[in-house]
DNA sequence: CCTGTGACTTGCATTTTGAAAGTCATTGTA
DNA sequence: TACAATGACTTTCAAAATGCAAGTCACAGG
């Protein structure tokens, strides 16, 4: 097996998730968001080109799946795969540490779907 | 309280740790590394300017402390603060997920000190 | 025909990253 | 006394990533 930087598991995780936006998209998915506009309307205001890029990379990495929810015209939504769901404990650990060290921060609530 | 991007704990954590290098420096510290050359000699080969930048930011963020270990000439080493130590569960969760999804990766061993 | 919606794409300026080489004080070696 | 080595950085500059604004494309409704 050949690794990009090293055989460290942390390093390899950072190669896919190590930036300021990717984990926020995962967070939104965990909270129940599925559609493009839902992601762009999160308070961090991700730029649409960055979002498109991250969705593509996450799909390639097998963390999310793109699925049409209607035809004429076809529209897509995104869902976490099992691999993506597996990141929940990582997010949990980050939230625990984050809430402790950034006073005033608060876990975001799940979003409702029809 | 005023936040850079939002009041989400994950977002605020990413504002300090969300890149490809910062967590690797933390990893090295957790493994027992303390000195500049120890960090640059890790297999990921961090560039010295990036390392200097990250050490400065981590110190500012209160995750590490810089301390002289000799005079004439003065030399420094870095140590995790309690806040920095608190990240261990985050690293643990990442390692668990990483080892599962990147076959062949393996937790790095602690380094020895004289 | 005109407006709106959803999911993007394009263009371009600003910012960050990365590789390589340089600095500076002091110590050890010849 | 000169010279190489060590440790902890700093500087330079090109390449890549980010961010903002605007544009596209297919269809639906009025």
Quickly count the helices of chain A: 6
Name the helix and strand elements of chain A from N-terminus to C-terminus, one letter apiece.
HHHHEEHH
Give the oligomeric state: homodimer
| Rg of chain A (CA only) | 15 Å
Mean pLDDT value of chain A: 94
Shape call of chain A: globular
Q: Tell me the span between the first and last alpha carbons of chain A.
A: 45 Å
* Stretches with pLDDT under 50, minimum 5 residues of chain A: none
The order of strands across the largest sheet of chain A is 1-2
Q: Main sheet of chain A, how many strands, which sense, barrel?
A: 2 strands, antiparallel
Strand content of chain A: 5-15%
Measured by residues with Cβ under 8 Å of the partner chain's Cβ, the largest interface is: A-B, 46 and 46 residues
Give the beta-strand count of chain A: 2
The helical percent of chain A reads 40-55%
Structural class of chain A: mainly alpha
